Amino acid sequence: MNWLLPEYLADALPAEAARIERLRRTVLDHFRSRGFELVMPPMLEYLESLLTGAGQDLKLRTFKLVDQLSGRTLGVRADITPQAARIDAHLLNHQGVTRLCYCGSVLHTLPATISAGREPLQIGAELYGYAGIAADLEVVRLMAGAFDKISLPLNRIDLGHVGIFRALAAAAGLPQEAEENLLSLLQAKDAPGLADACADVASPYREALQRLPYLYGGVEVLDEAARTLPDLPAIRAALESLRHIAAQAPTLPLSFDLSDLRSYHYHNGVIFAAYCSGYPTAIASGGRYDEAGKAFGRARPATGFSMDLREVARLVPAGKNIGAILAPHVGKDGRLAAHIAALRDQGEIVVELLPGETACEGPFCDRKLVLVGEHWIIEAIQED
User: Is the peptide bond before 204 cis (omega within 30 degrees of 0)?
Assistant: First the structure.
């Protein structure tokens, strides 16, 4: 059974691989048209580089091995975002705004969800050096535009802000263990469990924490949050940031979820997640993660998003199958060779048969080259 792969790993066969590659080119061209420059970090790095600062949440998801050259522990990247932060902070060293994008495989020790694989093809974009809400808005629009380009409609884009829960936890004086417990209950939207866990929390923070799971819906949720949550400066600022995005992007399918605290220890501001039909969890997600580059010598404001192109490819309409042209073996026929070369220069797929080969089992051939008199012409292949 040597042909079997480990669980949650899979080959991409020709049709799927072609679809993934088409999507990769489309999305990267979309990023490039908006000034995001492509970077290609390595698959392996010293473990401490991959797990430094904001990357600590990746510790359990990262495969580890020993470098035979240095004897140090290496990690196989589980996320490209920390690598992009390292490049911005230490290698490029720009003083102003830096826009970077990437696409590459990452490896997870365990699948993120029951439907996900352990080798996502992560594609994403990051914006460094701008702390204002305009950067968050640009990244949300960039993500929405990418899905428009690949013709995969988004049902909704959920926005949240980790600063709201963080402000409530600080004002209530919650110890670390209690904060972590409440965090998991909020993520599960476990209202009864949340009520029990908040029993000893002082008012008005007890009521505010219990209210968070219900603050979900349209833009009216922000007004309700302003009325029912304590009037803390950090909460006011967070709600204002979310209002600004809603006002500036009226055509996007925005909704708000103030108890969605995904990657709470990684992000520190606006967070967002995109959903589409036929997929049980977020198909793309991102948010603000300032100071990720601090461990690399330069703390910078940062925001971005990413998605798994393998999962996206399964949801995108297959589209029209591009047919190929079947050509006989050239041999010493210079005119046929020149004709095939010209067709390929025009973007056609031309499969030249080998000596003795009578049919092509690879690309779908819907046409063939035939010699009529002294000229090679293209004819449709009639199905039997």
Answer: yes
Q: Which residue has the tokens 């093809």?
A: 121
Side chain identity, residue 152: L
Instruction: Identify the burial level of 334 via C-beta atoms within 10 angstroms of its C-beta, where 0-12 means exposed, 13-18 middle and 19 or more buried.
Output: exposed
CB 133 within 8 A of CB 244: yes
Tens of pLDDT along 73-83? 999 999 999 99
Helix (H) and strand (E) counts in the chain: 12, 16
**E strand or H helix that includes residue 105:** strand 98-105
Q: What is the pLDDT of residue 264?
A: 80
Same domain flag for 82 and 22: yes
Same domain, 287 and 328: no
34 occurs within a structural domain: yes
Model confidence at 144, pLDDT cuts 50, 70, 90, reads very high
Give domain status of residue 148, yes or no: yes
Task: Supply the range of the domain harboring residue 311.
Answer: 1-155+276-319
The pTM of the full predicted model, rounded to 2 decimals, is 0.91
